[in-house]
Design brief:
With 105 residues, the protein is an alpha+beta fold. The chain has 4 helices and 3 strands; from the N terminus they run αβααββα. α1 crosses α2.
Length: 105
C-alpha cells in the first residue's frame, strides 16, 4: 500500500474517500463531501480531480465507468484500509487531548 505518500490524509482527501464508499461521479463526490461535512468542507474541481487521479494512480480508488467526460469511482480495499487507519489516528489524537486535559482515563 502507498502508505508513505499518504502517511496522513488532508481533510479533502479524507472526505473524498468517505464519499467514495459508494460509487459516484466527480460531481457527486463534491456534493457528498459538502453533505457529509454539513457544508463545512467544500472541494473545488481542481483539487478534486487532481486528488482523484492521484488516488487512482495509487490503487486507493478505481474508476468504474465513463460516459462522455463523466467518470465514476469507488474506493478500493486499499483505500478502505487507508481511510480506517486515518480514522484511528484521528481518534487517538482526540483521546490523547482528552487524556491530557484529565477528561479521559
Amino acid at each position: 500500500m502507498p502508505r508513505e505518500q499518504f502517511q496522513t490524509l488532508s481533510e479533502p482527501m479524507y472526505y473524498i474517500l468517505l464519499a467514495l464508499r459508494s460509487e459516484c461521479s466527480g460531481v457527486d463526490v463534491m456534493n457528498r463531501v459538502k453533505e457529509i461535512s454539513g457544508g463545512r468542507v467544500v472541494i473545488g474541481p481542481g483539487t478534486l480531480y487532481a486528488l482523484l487521479q492521484k488516488f487512482v494512480d495509487n490503487g486507493i480508488i478505481t474508476e468504474t465507468k465513463t460516459s462522455g467526460r463523466m467518470r465514476w469511482y469507488i474506493i478500493t480495499k486499499t483505500g478502505k484500509t487507508l481511510l480506517d487507519e486515518e480514522f484511528l489516528r484521528l481518534r487517538t489524537m482526540c483521546n490523547d487531548k482528552l487524556r491530557a486535559e484529565g477528561e479521559l482515563q
